[in-house]
Structure formats: structure tokens, C-alpha cells
Write a structure and sequence with these properties.
3 domains, 17 strands, OB fold (Dihydrolipoamide Acetyltransferase, E2P), SH3 type barrels, single chain, 56% strand, mainly beta, 187 residues
């Protein structure tokens, strides 16, 4: 058992029989009335984001989680097959379990969160930055290298992204997977 004083971003808690992850929180001490903690929490089973308010000092059940590295092997429909990098054990996750799955390519490492007591996967996320090759985009025009305008492009994983005008087919780019935006061209 823990209290609201121990809240931090990324902490996993048990609430109403389901696992939740704290995305953000704010301690509020109004001039009148008791202090409270305003939070944004994400359900690890459904992915739903919820705003919740906890009274300061209330007891909360903390879930022990383990972060394990897995390698993406292949997909069959909505099922994604992953292999543990340590013991080569394979698991299968639904598409909904993996955040920003449109940027996932074969051989890429994925962090999988496991409920330590039950041994079941809760969620999976890609690295914050990933390098992909542009499969299709309109050709770049000479002289359009210094402008701040973007054009649509398709990556090797068929993800749609906005890139600067100087990016051409076959170029490798670095993408921020959490926001789904172009960062830079990679040599």
C-alpha cells in the first residue's frame, strides 16, 4: 500500500480491480478544503485515458511491473509475435497492446511491461526514436531545402508521416514514435 504522496509519472496502480498507469499528476492544495491530487491515468488493459481525482493521503495499491526487451518477429492479422531477447521465449500480443504500432518493423526491439505477480503482459511500447526508410513521396525540388513546409510520405511500414520537401524516396529518417513526427534525415 502506498499513498498519493508517492505518485510519480509511470507508476502503475490497481484501481477498481484493473491496472492503471499514471501519465501525469498534480498536487493541489486549495485555500479552502482538503488537498487532493489531480491525475491522468491510462488503463493498461484497454488503453483508455481517464482523469481522476484522489484525496490527499488516500491508500493506493501499487502494481509491481517488469520491463522486458522483446524483438518483433512477424504479424498474422491482428496478432504480433515477439521473442524475448534473453531466453528466446515467444509471445503473441494483440495489435491494441502495442503503442504506435504503425512504426513497428521486423527485427525492432519493443519494451513489454509485465505484471510481476501474475506474469501477464500489460502493454508494449516502441523506442522513442526509430529509423525508417521512405517508401513513397513526391520528388524533392531543388531550392526547397530551407523552407519549413512539409509534404506527405509513406514509410517502409506503410505509416503516413509529414516530411520536409527535400526528403526523397529511399531516404532514411528518424521519427519520434510518441508524437509520430519527423525529426531528421539520417545518413
Amino acid at each position: 500500500m502506498a499513498t498519493t504522496a508517492e505518485f510519480r509519472n509511470g507508476l502503475c496502480i490497481q484501481l477498481n480491480g484493473e491496472p492503471w498507469k499514471i501519465e501525469s499528476f498534480q498536487h493541489v492544495k486549495p485555500g479552502k478544503g482538503p488537498a487532493f491530487v489531480r491525475t491522468k491515468i491510462r488503463n493498461l488493459n484497454t488503453g483508455r485515458l481517464l482523469e481522476n481525482t484522489f484525496t490527499a493521503g488516500v491508500k493506493i495499491d501499487i502494481i509491481r511491473i517488469e520491463n522486458r526487451k522483446y524483438q518483433y518477429l512477424y504479424s498474422e492479422g491482428k496478432d504480433y509475435h515477439l521473442m524475448n531477447n534473453d531466453d528466446y521465449e515467444q509471445i503473441m500480443l494483440q495489435k491494441d497492446f502495442i503503442e504506435n504500432v504503425e512504426f513497428l518493423k521486423e527485427g525492432e526491439n519493443v519494451d513489454v511491461l509485465f505484471h510481476a505477480d501474475k506474469g501477464v503482459p500489460l502493454s508494449a511500447c516502441l523506442p522513442t526514436h526509430i529509423i525508417l526508410t521512405i517508401k513513397h513521396t513526391e520528388p524533392g525540388i531543388k531550392g526547397n531545402t530551407a523552407t519549413n513546409t512539409f509534404k506527405p510520405a509513406t514509410t517502409e511500414t506503410d505509416a503516413k508521416i509529414q516530411v520536409p520537401l527535400f526528403i526523397n524516396e529511399g531516404d532514411k529518417i528518424k521519427i519520434d514514435t510518441s508524437k509520430g513526427v519527423y525529426i531528421e534525415r539520417v545518413k
